[in-house]
Protein: C-type cytochrome
Amino acid sequence: MVFKKSVKSILFAALSVNASYLSAQGPEEAAREVEKAIHLTPNIENGKKVFMICTVCHRPEGWASPDGMYPQIAGQQASVLIKQLADIRARNRDNPTMLPFTSPRLLGGAQEIADVAAYISKLPMSPNNSFGPGFDLELGERLYMEECSECHGKQGEGDKTDHIPLIQGQNYYYLIRQFDWIRSGKRRNADEKMVRQIQRFTPREELAVLDYVSRIRPAEEKLAQPGWLNPDFPNYARVPMPQIPQMQMPQMPMPPMPQMVR
Structure:
């Protein structure tokens, strides 16, 4: 009951954020806040408290939703989380759903951003992310190694120094959505080199490489144990998420071989 009241108060505060705050602040403001937050010493215990506002959508485990609406944020690089929060807050990345939750009134300042990012980065990742049909993985692997691994790493581990996200273990449907938004320019804070690079991809190449990425498994020590629930939120009422079945390679009959004409 206490937690439900807390969630209601969070939602009310998010919806009543001062409209003047929602005016654009720009990438320069975001860059200053990122630089400040990254060099602060995070307080993990306070990060747990701040994370309560995130559980409204991301739930206590920080795992992806099956439909790709929300990403897996558990285990993500802290520097990446800091940058994305600062970019959304400064409206350098368009995310109307998250924007109210990143306001100083709810999230706090650079210290709170550093705290919650550190907390989320320590959460174990889901061992059951969704992946694609699996029928073009050879092409997907080749494309990934040629086009993506230089920045994202051979195992999709990312780069905390350059704020490049960890993409291993990410939900297949979320990867598709973000890929399309980056390519179209809807996700405005994307790396310009990546935008130009993926604009060359054909639909087949896009789905193949993202299917491959979704199957890059995180190290065992980063994965949650079966049945794990975040013990920091023992009173959280978890409503089961609708499940989307894993895509399987379709079983199609082979057409008859044509007869040779002599």
Observations:
- Residues 1 and 35 are 39 Å apart (CA to CA).
- The domain at 1-125 is CATH 1.10.760.10 (Cytochrome Bc1 Complex; Chain D, domain 2).
- Residues 137-152 form the longest helix (16 residues).
